[in-house]
Amino acid sequence: PVLVLDYGAQYAQLIARRVRETQVYSEVVPHDTPVEQLLERDPAALILSGGPSSVYADGAPQTDPALFETGVPTFGICYGFQAMVRSLGGTVENTGTREYGRTELGIAGDGGVLHEDMPGHHPVWMSHGDSVSKAPEGFAVTAGSTDTPVAAIEDVDRRLAGVQYHPEVAHSPHGQEVLRRFLHDIAGIRPQWTTASIVDDTVAALREQIGSGRAICGLSGGVDSAVAAALVNKAVGTQLTCVFVDHGLLRAGERAQVERDFVAATGVRLVTVDAVDRFVDALSGVTDPEEKRKIIGREFIRVFEQAARDLQEEAGAAGEHIDFLVQGTLYPDVVESGGGTGTANIKSHHNVGGLPEDLQFQLVEPLRALFKDEVRRVGLELGLPETIVHRQPFPGPGLGIRVIGEVTQQRLDTLRAADAIAREELTAAGLDRDIWQCPVVLLADVRSVGVQGDGRTYGHPVVLRPVSSEDAMTADWTRLPYDVLERISTRITNEVSEINRVTLDVTSKPPGTIEWE
Ligand code: XMP
Q: Domain GMPS ATP-PPase, which positions (predicted)?
């Protein structure tokens, strides 16, 4: 792998993704991983990420000089670039000037390998205080900016290079090409991490892990569990059974999508548990968001657990045992939880946490190494329909946390109808790829006066919450075209009789979360 040493940058995961986009496998590791441990991983290259502070600041993360004596191709970015320069005998100075944001990069000479044939001046994204004033011995300086004479260096013979700017962000339009040139041309890595190879390798590993055992997988209708199940199904076929719990908090058409489209695409064995009444009963009288989440989570586990026991009994009658539980854990969750191996990473109830000991499953996590965009590509490669692969994220507690106030069957039906209209219009307008998700929220305890067809109405408002995001950690409200908003508003108020007002949430995250509860 290409190992990205994380110096505390919010960018480290993004760098790993960009590396993978050049079809080279990459992982994030803590910056203080001992050099011997890095070498044990047999890295094809190392990338030192940006970091928060000055290389001279108290408590600044240290770089072991041995890092640059390993012979492994190494690329430094921002803080990592300065750490490299300082370790190898160049000069990093606190010049008193700061560069932040969009900056013009000027290419020096022929631009070297990294910047050859690029426009002589082009924009890059900078974010630093200290600057490199002198490159270490043996390095060519191939670019600079007004405030930073040394903004890119390379030593092709030693396969070391670095840039002051952030090549991984979209604001550096040539950055991806610079990374590619470092990896392919300077480090000499062959691009082999393709969607097809991911599928082949994962399927082989799953066959190895599961052998002739039996597995179950809880489907949420979301893309992660669907792709995880499709991979396991490809690997071991009928040794896998999928369980889909219909808790009545789903959006319109979701159950059919799983029962029909997913099964048609994969041929997977599917058991659907109808638990609608059970969930609505359990939520009766409850208005507190955390209490709702707890109840939904608890009921979900009980239902899933029962389904698993039933399957276990069935299998037992045939002299078999279910050994494995498939989970759709993604790489970002693995990194954030410290990268431990074999630990269940349960973020939310629909990942089916807290199964009782006596079920004793081993975890199977076929997406552990993948980012979301890779999961989607794998899904398409496996023949899953677009409707599943490019589905908006949907919270495990479903519409239960989008009805503000008590959840009742009627309120769920109202919200489901409004939500279906919003999704239909967004899809028709071709906006699905521009938004991360657009929750529709029913303010069930609020009423307002309206007028419709000469009559007074006294109905409920819904809130449209369209957001754009890379990873749901932060989000901005999406500037949807007015004509699309108008169509959604007109249709909802005409077609859903309980709703007489459509409002728009224009809050970013932070301070607002994406969901209202
Ligand atoms: P918030 O509301 O925290 O949501 O900004 C961030 C993202 O997570 C989704 N979400 C959940 N997903 N179980 C899930 O699987 C949950 O309990 C849950 N709560 C929020 C939300 O839709 C958004 O994409």
A: 193-391
